[in-house]
Structures are given as C-alpha cells and as structure tokens.
Amino acid sequence: MKTDLELQKVVQDELLWEPILLNSEIGVTAKDGVIMLTGTVGSYAKKLAAEKSAKTVMDVKAVAQELSVRLAGVGKRTDTEIAQATVSALEWNSAVPHEKVKLKVENGWVKVE
To answer: Is 39 in a helix, a strand, or coil?
Structure first.
C-alpha cells in the first residue's frame, strides 16, 4: 500500500500521460487512498479524462473531483447577439406575429412575451 504522498505522485504522473490534460489545470491530493482532483479545465472531456486516469492507479480507493469546467469564450454569443438572432428568426417565420412578440435576453436565456 502506498503512502498518501506516493499515491499523489503516481496520480500526478498518470495525469501527465493523458494528452488532452495540462498539468497546471489539475491539483491532486491524497488521503487514505482517496484522491481529490481540484482545479478548472476547459472542457467536460478533460474532466472525464482526469477522473478516469486517477481511477486507473493501483491503491486508489475513490476519486472525489472538484473540477469545474470553464469553456473558452470562442463561439460564445453575447446577449445582444442572441437577441438579434432571435428577432431575425421570428421575422423569418410567417406564422409568428413578430411585431407583437417582445423578447428579453439575460445571461444567455431568452424570455418571450
């Protein structure tokens, strides 16, 4: 059975072998065979890959992950862009009385009245 420090090091080394992960994104701690993964990653795939890699290490009893996913701003629309696209879509649909429809866009959510 590995000590907590040994287990932490082995898990860190295992994460280095995962091509989509960056070492600086994920923190690793170990206590009594339980691995805690912390940090922020750029995709859900990275989160799953980190968890899967940690689980493959011998003597790991459980993986607790506190990884958050923060997507890059690429492809992300502002509320103004969402509102403009929604208005345009409504105007193109002849079945919708777009002149009577009011929109509110807040934090990416569209409310139609």
So the answer is: strand
